[in-house]
Amino acid sequence: xxxxxxxxxxxxxxxxxxxxxxxxxxxxxxxxxxxxxxxxxxxxxxxxxxxxxxxxxxxxxxxxxxxxxxxxxxxxxxxxxxxxxxxxxxxxxxxxxxxxxxxxxxxxxxxxxxxxxxxxxxxxxxxxxxxxxxxxxxxxxxxxxxxxxxxxxxxxxxxxxxxxxxxxxxxxxxxxxxxxxxxx
Length: 184
Fold this sequence. Notes:
Layout: H1 3-16, H2 19-32, H3 38-50, H4 54-63, H5 69-81, H6 85-91, H7 93-97, H8 105-118, H9 121-132, H10 140-152, H11 156-183
Helix pairs in contact: 1-2, 1-3, 3-4, 3-5, 4-5, 5-6, 5-8, 6-8, 8-9, 8-10, 10-11
C-alpha cells in the first residue's frame, strides 16, 4: 500500500471517526511498513485523538523515538478534544526540556485553548507572553484564540487590546497593499 494512500486513509478515519478501520490500518502498517515515519505516526496520533481513543494516542506518542512540533500539536490537540486540557498544559514543558523544540502556531493554539477551557489566567498569560516573542506572533488564529481565552478567563480588557492590535496590523497591511498597487 502506498505511503500517501495510508496517510489519506488515516485522515479519512479521523474525519469520519471510524476507529475500528483506523486500528485495522494501524495493524496493517505495523505488519508491512518497515520504518514508521513521522508523518504516519503523527496521523495515527491524530486519528486516535479525533476518534476519542486518547490512551491509544498517548501510547503511540510515548513510543515515538523522535518527536517534532507536529507530533506535539497532534497529542496536545487530542488531549483538548478528550476534554483533558490539564494534560495538555502538564505535557507541554517536556517539549522544551526533553525535546528542545520551540512551539509553532498549532502548539500555541492548543495551549491557548487549554488555558481558556480551564480558565487558567496565570498559564494563559505565560503562553501569551511566550507567543508574543515567538517567530509566529503574527498568526491571526492564535491571536483570535487569545481574545477568546481572555474573555473566557474574565479579562475582556486584555482581549480588547489583542483585538486592537489585530485591527492595526490589518490596517497597516491593507494600506501597504494600496500603496503598492498605486505604484503600478
